[in-house]
C-alpha cells in the first residue's frame, strides 16, 4: 500500500490539522486530515454526484474535506475518496470508501471509533457501504446520512425519467425533429456532441427558465408552468435535474448497462398540466429491460440490512434529493425489521449541498453518543442539543421535531409493478442476484 503525501490543508482547515493525499491501487485519489486536537475517532466520507468523467478527480476529495471542515473542527479525523472513476457506480463508491478507511488504518493506526458520512448520492453510497461492511463486528460504529438519495437507483430517478419525457413533449428540442432520433430513456444518444451549455440553451429556448417572468413569451411561460406542475420540481433546480436526466442517464445506459434500458414510465398517469389528456396521449412511453433494471437495482438499491446506528439529517425543502427519500428508507428498514437502528431528523432548510454547521456538529456528537452508550436518542433531544453547537458556529438550528415526510409515492408517480412497496431490492434478491455472473455495474 503506497504512502500518502503530506500536503497543505484546504483553506477552511488551515493549520488546525495535518493533511495528506494519495492514490490507491484502484486509481482513486483520496484526502486525509488528522486534527491537532484529534479525539481519536474517524469520519469516512462518501461524496455525492456522480461526477462524470473517465478518471478519478484528485480535487474532489480535497474539496469535500474543505466543505465539511466542521468535522475536523469537532476533533474528528477525516478520510474521503474521489472514487476510481467518474460515472455511475454505487457499489464502486462503497468499495472505494472502504478502501480509504483501510488506507487510514494502515498508515495512522486504528481509530477508537469509525463513522460513515454520506451526502446526496454519497448518502446512497454510504448506505450501501453500511450494508456491505457495517455488521456488528465490522469496522464501522455508526453512520450519518445527510440529504441522502436513499430511494436507490431503480426507483430513485423515476421523477427524472418523468422530467425527460414531459420536457420533450412540450419542448421537442432534445432531440430536435431535424436531428437523429433516439429513445428518451437513453438520456442522450451515445455519440452526441451536445454540451451542458447547449442543453441549457435549449431549456431557455423552450421555457425561459432563467429569465425574469416579464421577459418570457406566453408559450415559454406555459411550457415552464406545465413542466413544473407535472414533475413537482422546483424551478430553481430544473436545469440540474434535466442535466442529470440527459447526461447521467446517458452514462448509466450506454457506459454502464451496455445500451440496455433500466427505466419505465408505462402505466404512469401524468397530471397537473393545462391539458392532461393530450399530455398522456402524446408523451413517449417505454418499459425497462428486466436485466438492466436488475443490474441497476443490485448496484444501488438498499435492502435495509443494517446492524449499527444510523442517523439521517434532511432539509425539508431540499430541491434536489427531496425529503420523501427518507420515507423510502424508513420503510426499507421497517420491512427488514431494522428500523430500531434508525433515527431521522429534519430541518426547515431549503438547500441540498450543505446544511448548518451547527447541525452537522450536533449530529456527529449525538451519533457518537448513541454508538458509545447504545442509547437511541429521540428526535426532540437531538433538536434541543443543537443550541450548544450553534453557540460556536452561529449558523442556526432549524430542526422540526414534529415533521414526518409523506410517502415516496406522494412525490413521484408510482410505477404499476410494485412501485409503492419498499425495499426496492430485498436481501433475498440481493443474494440470488449476486450469484449471476457479471451482475450489477462494473467498477
How much helical structure, as a percent, in the residues? 25-40%
Number of helices: 14
| Beta content | 5-15%
Low-confidence stretches: none
List keywords for this structure.
443 residues, alpha/beta, nine-stranded mixed sheet, 14 helices
Give the topology.
Elements: E1 5-7, E2 17-23, E3 29-35, E4 42-46, H1 58-67, H2 69-73, E5 77-81, H3 90-108, E6 114-119, H4 121-133, E7 142-146, H5 158-171, H6 196-207, H7 218-231, H8 238-256, H9 276-282, H10 290-300, E8 310-315, H11 325-335, E9 342-347, H12 357-373, H13 379-393, H14 427-433
Parallel strand pairs: 4-5, 4-6, 6-7, 7-8, 8-9
Antiparallel strand pairs: 1-2, 2-3, 3-5
In a nutshell, what does this entry contain?
With about 450 residues, the chain is α/β, with parallel strands linked by helices. The protein has helices at about 60-65, 70-75, 90-110, 120-135, 160-170, 195-205, 220-230, 240-255, 275-280, 290-300, 325-335, 355-375, 380-395, 425-435, and strands at about 5, 15-25, 30-35, 40-45, 75-80, 115-120, 140-145, 310-315, 340-345.
Question: How would you explain this protein's 3D organization?
Answer:
- By secondary structure, the chain is α/β, with parallel strands linked by helices.
- The protein is 39% helix and 11% strand.
- The protein has a nine-stranded mixed sheet with strand order 1-2-3-5-4-6-7-8-9, with helices on both faces.
- α3 (90-108) crosses α4 and α5 packs antiparallel against α7 (218-231).
Amino acid at each position: 500500500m503506497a504512502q500518502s503525501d503530506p500536503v497543505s490543508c484546504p483553506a477552511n482547515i488551515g493549520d488546525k490539522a495535518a493533511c495528506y493525499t494519495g492514490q490507491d491501487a484502484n486509481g482513486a485519489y483520496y484526502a486525509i486530515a488528522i486534527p491537532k486536537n484529534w479525539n481519536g475517532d474517524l469520519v469516512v466520507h462518501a461524496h455525492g454526484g456522480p461526477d462524470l468523467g473517465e478518471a478519478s478527480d484528485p480535487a474532489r476529495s480535497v474539496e469535500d474535506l474543505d466543505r465539511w471542515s466542521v468535522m475536523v473542527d469537532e476533533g474528528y479525523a477525516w478520510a474521503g475518496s474521489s472514487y476510481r472513476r467518474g460515472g455511475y457506480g454505487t457499489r464502486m463508491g462503497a468499495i472505494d470508501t472502504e478502501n480509504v478507511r483501510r488506507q487510514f488504518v494502515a498508515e495512522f493506526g486504528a481509530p477508537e471509533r469509525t463513522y460513515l458520512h454520506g451526502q446526496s448520492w454519497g448518502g446512497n453510497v454510504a448506505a450501501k457501504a453500511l450494508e456491505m461492511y457495517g455488521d456488528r463486528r465490522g469496522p464501522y460504529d455508526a453512520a450519518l446520512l445527510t440529504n441522502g438519495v436513499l430511494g436507490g437507483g431503480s426507483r430513485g430517478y423515476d421523477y427524472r425519467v418523468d422530467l425527460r419525457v414531459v420536457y420533450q413533449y412540450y419542448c421537442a428540442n432534445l432531440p430536435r425533429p431535424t436531428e437523429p432520433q433516439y429513445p428518451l430513456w437513453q438520456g442522450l444518444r451515445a455519440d452526441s456532441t451536445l454540451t451542458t451549455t447547449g442543453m441549457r440553451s435549449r431549456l431557455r429556448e423552450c421555457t425561459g427558465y432563467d429569465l425574469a417572468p416579464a421577459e418570457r413569451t406566453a408559450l415559454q411561460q406555459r411550457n415552464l408552468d406545465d413542466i413544473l406542475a407535472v414533475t413537482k420540481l422546483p424551478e430553481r433546480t430544473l436545469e440540474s435535474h434535466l442535466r442529470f436526466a440527459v447526461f447521467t442517464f446517458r452514462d448509466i445506459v450506454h457506459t454502464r448497462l451496455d445500451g440496455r434500458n433500466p427505466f419505465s414510465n408505462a402505466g404512469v398517469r401524468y397530471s397537473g398540466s393545462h391539458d392532461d389528456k393530450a399530455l398522456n396521449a402524446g408523451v413517449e412511453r417505454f418499459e425497462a429491460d428486466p436485466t438492466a433494471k436488475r443490474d441497476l437495482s443490485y448496484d444501488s438499491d438498499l435492502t435495509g440490512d443494517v446492524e449499527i446506528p444510523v442517523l439521517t439529517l434532511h432539509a425539508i425543502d431540499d430541491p434536489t434529493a427531496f425529503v420523501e427519500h427518507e420515507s423510502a428508507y424508513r420503510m426499507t428498514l421497517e420491512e427488514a425489521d431494522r428500523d430500531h437502528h434508525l433515527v431521522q431528523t429534519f430541518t426547515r432548510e431549503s438547500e441540498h449541498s450543505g446544511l448548518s454547521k451547527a447541525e452537522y456538529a450536533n449530529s456527529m456528537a449525538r451519533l457518537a453518543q448513541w454508538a458509545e452508550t447504545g442509547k437511541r436518542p429521540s428526535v426532540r433531544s437531538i433538536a434541543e442539543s443543537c443550541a450548544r453547537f450553534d453557540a460556536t458556529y452561529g449558523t442556526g438550528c432549524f430542526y422540526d421535531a414534529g415533521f414526518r415526510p409523506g410517502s415516496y409515492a406522494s412525490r413521484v408517480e408510482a410505477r404499476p409493478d410494485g412501485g409503492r412497496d419498499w425495499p426496492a431490492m430485498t436481501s433475498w434478491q440481493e443474494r440470488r442476484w449476486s450469484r449471476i455472473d457479471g451482475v450489477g455495474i462494473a467498477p
